[in-house]
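thread: overnight batch results

M.L. [08:02]
morning all. the overnight job finished for the chain we discussed friday. pasting input first so we're all looking at the same thing
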Amino acid sequence: MTAMISLSIMLAAIYILAVVTDEFFIPSLDRISHRWRLPSHVAGASLMAVGSSAPELAIAFLSLFKEGGAHSDVGAGTIVGSAVFNILVITGVSAVCREAKISLPVVLRDTVFYFLAIALLVTAFWDGGITIFECLLFLGLYAVYLAFLFAVPFGDVEAVEMPMGADAKAETPGRGVRRLKDAVVGVVGRLAGRHGGSDLRVFSVSVLCIVILSWILVDTAVIFAGAIGLPPVVIALTVLAAGTSAPDLIASVMVARQGRGGMAVANAIGSNIFDVLVGLGLPWLVALTLVGRPFVAVGTHDLFLSVLILMGTVALLFFFLYTDRLLSRKEGIALLGCYGLYAGWTLIG
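M.L. [08:03]
and the structure it wrote out:
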């Protein structure tokens, strides 16, 4: 009974996440990007990545401060698992929806910075303790990445078009589902001041809703996993990782269906760069500053292999993107198959 109830709540939370993302998050992001005249790959790797990665950041903070940091591995495991999910599932599903054409400079930029982020993560994990200096390295590398995004022009210079959300809306089957959607749109619309409200307000309220819904999704996922006997490491690497990546998946599929596969791929990689460098670096820095400890202990014996697998997935994605500057449907299916193998290995292992 517990498993059924928690599963039902998870499904409802995922659907509401889809509505909030479709009706509020993506349109507000699109208008902000259009006003700032951002190229699509820059918008995907910066604004969309930061906004839709808010759940992972919240998880990392909670895991560090809950019960004196006893659950710090959960935050790190969630981000590592989410990174694998983003690379294999988000880019895979996006390519299945519509083949993605990418310019080589954009691919090189994002994958190089992502490899640097993973290398920094491996170095920080090596001795099982995170210092303030290492936290500053994480945040400093992300600052360099953002500066590189906005300062260096690349091949994709076409600004984001408007409106992004309108063409991506799917019809809602069933009267009950339509009522749920209408209720969500009505409540969030009032909070966001949709009619007459600023784009920044709509964006902020939608991100807040994404965080709250993600927390509900995470809590029910933990209950569901406990009901069926999953251990905590598996929860972090699979259930929590997939649950907190739901906004990224929804946003990327929407833009991919409109023919902007490059933005979808940039969102997936940009989200991972944010998750690793800021989602871990910022909570660690705050914890070290507030608690006054010389380092944050992180038990990484269960995460190293997943980090190495993560590096392999980035290499595979780069190879697919490098060939013909195209991520085809067959390659998208191959990425999804790889995630199936990873998830199966994690569950069995």
